[in-house]
Design brief:
2 copies of one chain form a homodimer. The first copy, chain A, has about 650 residues and is of the alpha+beta class. The first copy, chain A, contains 17 helices and 23 strands. In chain A, about 55% of the residues are buried. Chains A and B meet through α13, α16, β14 and β20 of A and α13, α16, β14 and β20 of B. β20 (about 615-620) of chain A pairs antiparallel with β14 of chain B, so a sheet runs across the interface.
Chain lengths: ~650, ~650
């Protein structure tokens, strides 16, 4: 690794009104709520969605840890990876301390670290299902066990907690865990030549490597990536030895190898396949390891998978996953809006991947996608009250269809209290509390500002950068760079793909710098006042016409925000509106609506609804009358916070 | 029942080229092929569709009968209703004797009757699964057993075979069977107060009543209809007594009561629900019994269900069933084209229902729907070679989607050799061999000619009606009525909904008779030469705009034939064409294509396909160029007889 010539980033304080609200919400509502749920102290109902796994009102996640630690009697309850709900919550709490010191919360999290330490076995192993109920099956059914996935999530939490609080125990647990895995997996004789059914450990070990500098962890992460798919029957053979019928998760054995991204080695895989969250977690691990090792095959795979996702498998909101079967991607350009999946975790994971790709290369597209996730696909996963969550994020929804057409029963039209498989709520919480870590990337020779989330940042040499704006509602972005020591560095500002028109001034003077791979670079040697004016005109978007589902339709975007029509604002059915794309929409910020959102009013023509006595099929000569009307649109992330009803991102035109 | 004043119909000989080809195909190819399959003598592969039930290459249907008759050793194999494949085939063969005497086939079918008689138990019971492997569970798990469904299918076959050949044994078996059911079911103490999970016995008993005049059978059919849904937990209680886990068909227990049409009494049910084939079989039984008993509640339910299906739940091709889950209807106006079901059997059953509704009331709509099924939704179930079959009939198909999107895996894009649940192939065969029975309805005071399938028909009093035409390709329909005895009767001719424009002459003179409920009535007293000229212009159709899936699209129809675009004729993707509905399509009959079809060429604009390097989402300002082109369309029933590829009925416009 080259040492960067650009000043090191030390601290970021988020000042954005938009994000401060979300981050305070997580501190005040989300973390206490989720802690209560995981301690079985909240009065919740669990959504009867396909991931329910028959769970009732209990999470039991903390209880599992207590039982495994010998502090409670009982059996494990829930999914094999139930522990990870706690770890992701712990990680979210750790990040929150950077902007909200909370002694009460700290007491809880310190005790939680103690509990986890007590639960961990002497050899470093930790997975409560196996410790409590299946001690002889450790590492024996990796297709389904999620043991490395589970420990990976602890390692991430432990690293984060150590970084946030200096709690040595939290790091020690992670180190002991990684050593346990290193002792059990690898190419040496006697070790398991395999990998987990769910990628995660690769990115977790990379993060542990970053904090410990222990090369073994990076090497082990690299091993897992290289080993994946080398022996496509690895899981099958393990299952046979373990007892073929003794599944840990019903129906998982029947999933194809592609579901686990284990059908072929990564270097041979040309397109992304399988479970969407596995895809983006794997990609994130690949990007970490590729960067630290320089492995060219891995770097090429990162590019290949990135392009396949972003150019051919991603919804306009950043959501990923076209089918509920296997919660999976399907094939290039297959992006149905009403039967899709678009799991919140996949958008969270895609944010991880984008951030790591920015570390590999200063390419604006990575920042574009990160922004797309932050303001749309990921954020949609949580209600404005912080206590209701989407697992599935559709782009077209209809309560009647969800209730009465079984092919859409996985599409909830109101966020749920909790899930049997509760991976999403805490995953989104940790993204929000750590969003300050997603704003800058310091490359070999530049500071990149790729997100327009207002903040005050401190760098080495007393350099500070203060970004002020009212983004995402306004496009005026101001940078106040203080550089009293006159350090020379490059400052790269992302010009979003949605703003090909922009104005940029430095100390009031227009610049003529060119865009290089999505960034404009300024040579900074003094304190500077930079003003960027982004193009916030409303854009009517279309899909590449290889996408069947969106043909002849338009989605409407303003800045980074993708808009949606909701029945709360517009008389159903929503498909009866034809947007008039030649007319300019009006925009107004409404502080009283949905915690404050920019609202679009779009001219449209609406067909008079046919009577129920109108024949089902008639000649097009008998078209119903069309009336001039207005469609009111709200940001996609804010949908389903009012009355239950239809919603659509793609509109007829 | 009033005695009709109209002459009784005695015989119909089909002369239509279109239907003669199909009927010869059934005799020459379909019946021998299906007989070979059911005897496990054909080299077939069974489609890996959701109905497969794990069956391999064997049908075993005839073997089950032989085993139950003690002529072979072994166990039952296949679905509980495997026997019905044989019975429907026998029924198809029986009808074929009316136009093709075949001594070899007759030898086989006579022997089959003997085998069935040998299989039948002394008390009349016949269901090989229970006779061979579960003798203690007879009538104990009617939710899943299909015993009355199975015996109902024999009764239909037995009646048909007796009518066709005079074979008394075939009728005796049916009578004995009905007596067995009558002894076991009914309101009397000690009898089972229940009904079969799958309607069929109701229509079968009605047919037996027609041939025997035995009122007990009609009464029993009426009992089953009235009892249905009166005790919604009937199946649950039976399952408990039988042993809750001892399912006969995996997953059937978890189906909702609506799946079985057993959630509430028929008279209370406002909309159709559940398994589409159960719906139309039940409706057919309802229509029979309503007519014979005059039961007003049943008559009202017939009208209600008919309207709900035809006005709100039917595809333009006549197909029914919007979801693969439970092979079911969903809710009003929910008619997705790519994830739909549209089972061949549902269209066959809808033809039964339509025919019975014509017996209740002379309403052209019933003839319209019957025609729609015969020329589209039902006929699509068989390939032109008679040896390949569709179970599911989609209106939009894409081999890539069927292969790679699990939500469409039930949609085959090429017809299969056979199915694990092989209900459709023989069902369609019996419809085709009996199509002569679907052309005339003799009402209280009129002969109705509601189908334009050329034929020679003989009535009482030496009246003959010869209908000649080249339908469905041409719209000139000629009737030559010979009425040497100068009998006075009304002759009703259906004016199809698709032909609001028409010309009608009697002996060369224009008539000014008005259309009454879809029919024009002529008073006949002499021999007459009638000429009807139907409107065969190509029609661009649309859906009622309450249908989301078809919004902004058009389907193209000429006469009764609904057309489809196939990749065999048009460069994919098919969604990139916009039909120019203002331009007149050209039509030409091509004798060399698909056994002779009328081909439509429609003007269209086609977008140049975006590059794979084009971003997935761009501004609509950057629209791809459109080019003038022509879309070639073939009849829907004939699709998937060439190379595998995309197909679409609804086209962008």
């Amino acid at each position: 690794m080259k040492v960067s010539t650009a000043p090191k980033l030390n601290k970021v304080e988020i000042t954005s009104d938009f994000w401060r609200r979300y981050r305070q919400l997580v501190v005040k509502e989300v973390l206490p709520y989720q802690w209560a749920v995981m301690n079985d102290e909240a009065d919740i109902s669990i959504a009867a969605d396909p991931q329910n796994n028959g769970q009732d009102k209990n999470s039991h996640a903390v209880a599992n840890l207590k039982i495994a630690a010998g502090k409670m009697k009982g059996h494990h309850y829930g999914f094999p990876f139930q522990d990870t709900d706690v770890y992701k919550w712990l990680e979210a709490a750790a990040y929150s301390f950077s902007y909200h010191q909370d002694a009460d919360l700290k007491k809880i999290t310190d005790s939680l670290i103690d509990l986890i330490a007590d639960t961990q076995e002497d050899d470093g192993y930790l997975s409560t299902l196996f410790q409590i109920d299946e001690p002889k099956r450790k590492f024996k059914r990796l297709q389904q066990s999620h043991e490395l996935y589970t420990m990976g999530h602890y390692i991430e939490a432990g690293v984060a907690y150590y970084n946030a609080t200096g709690n040595q125990k939290s790091l020690d647990i992670a180190v002991k865990m990684a050593d346990c895995i290193d002792n059990n997996f690898g190419s040496d004789d006697g070790k398991i030549h395999g990998y987990d059914g769910h990628p995660e450990i690769e990115l977790a070990l990379s993060r542990l490597y970053e904090v410990t500098n222990e090369a073994r962890y990076l090497k082990l992460a690299h091993y897992f990536l290289n080993q994946r798919g080398q022996n496509p029957d690895f899981f099958d053979k393990q299952n046979e030895v373990d007892g073929i019928e003794r599944d840990l998760i019903v129906n998982m054995r029947s999933m194809p190898r592609t579901y686990y991204l284990a059908a072929e080695p990564i270097k041979d895989q040309q397109t992304v396949q399988g479970h969407a969250v596995r895809v983006v977690y794997l990609c994130t691990g690949m990007a970490y390891v590729a960067r630290y090792t320089g492995d060219k095959d891995l770097l090429a795979a990162c590019d290949r998978f990135w392009n396949d996702i972003v150019k051919r498998q991603m919804y306009i909101t950043g959501n990923i996953g076209s089918t509920t079967t296997g919660e999976a991607v399907t094939y290039d350009y297959d992006l149905p809006n009403d039967t899709m999946y678009g799991e919140t975790c996949a958008s969270v994971g895609m944010s991880f991947f984008a951030r790591q790709m920015l570390n590999i290369k200063a390419k604006g597209e990575y920042g574009d996608v990160l922004e797309k996730e932050l303001f749309n696909g990921a954020l949609s996963g949580m209600s404005l009250d912080g206590k209701h969550f989407f697992y599935v994020n559709p782009l077209e929804a209809d309560p009647k269809a969800s209730k009465l057409n079984p092919g859409k029963s996985h599409v909830l039209t109101q966020r749920a209290d909790w899930f049997g498989c509760a991976c999403c709520p805490a995953n989104l919480a940790r993204l929000i509390t750590s969003v300050d870590q997603y704003l800058y990337t310091v490359t070999d020779d530049a500071i990149l500002s790729h997100q327009f989330i207002a903040n005050n940042a401190e760098f080495d040499n007393e350099i500070t950068i203060s970004q002020t704006n009212n983004f995402p509602w306004d496009g005026e972005i101001k940078y106040d760079i203080k550089n009293h020591n006159n350090i020379a560095f490059k400052f790269g500002i992302r010009i979003p793909a949605w703003s090909q028109n922009f104005e940029l001034t430095v100390n009031g003077n227009e610049t003529n710098a060119e865009i290089v791979d999505g960034f404009i670079y300024l040579d900074i040697t003094n304190s500077e006042a930079i003003e960027l004016r982004l193009d916030m005109t409303t854009k009517f978007m279309r899909s590449n016409n290889r996408v069947n589902a969106d043909y002849g339709k338009t989605a409407i975007q303003r800045g980074p925000i993708v808009y949606a029509a909701e029945e709360a604002d517009n008389e159903a059915p929503l498909w009866n509106y034809k947007v008039e794309t030649a007319k300019t929409p009006s925009y107004e910020y409404d502080a009283s609506l949905l915690n404050g959102v920019g609202v679009l009013n779009v001219k449209a023509r609406k067909q008079v609804l046919d009577s129920i006595d109108t024949p089902l099929y008639t000649r097009i000569a008998d078209m119903p009358e069309e009336k001039e009307t207005t469609l009111t649109l709200v940001p996609y992330y804010s949908w389903a916070n009012r009355s239950d009803g239809q919603m659509s991102v793609w509109l007829n035109k």
